[in-house]
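I had to read the description of the data format several times before I understood it. Each protein is reduced to its one-letter sequence and a matching series of backbone shape codes. The format is easy to grasp once an entry is in front of the reader. For illustration, here is how one protein appears when written out as sequence plus structure tokens:
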Amino acid sequence: MRKTCSIRLLLFGILFTAVCSLVLGFLMGTRKNWNSYEQRISLLQEKNESLLSQQEALEEERNLAESLNVVEPYEYILLAEDGYVAVYHADKKTLFSSTDILINRLPEDLQNEIMNGKCISNEEQLYNFLENYSS
């Protein structure tokens, strides 16, 4: 009986030691992984803050560039004349050319632009417009 008791006690001791070792090993490994995880999170947060500050700087640069855009002078202006599109020089007095483009056949937003005077920067843009909307 004594041998059985001591064998049980020995087996219980071995089992208990093994379980304690496994639990401690698991907890230590989890703690190590947790520290690594926290380090990764802090690095990602730093990168995120850096990217956000770079993005804000780029937006400010774009806004500044847009505010500093110089208005391009125009050479021609399109106006409505007797239901047709007429091309005038920038002074709005000197007729450059009359066209056969009917105002009412143009898209509504373009009609409004021409009614208010659509500015054309150069001859190339003028000819592109005329080519696109001529019949």
Observations:
- The longest strand covers residues 95-102.
- Strands lie at 76-81, 84-89, 95-102, 118-120.
- Residues 24 and 93 are 93 Å apart (CA to CA).
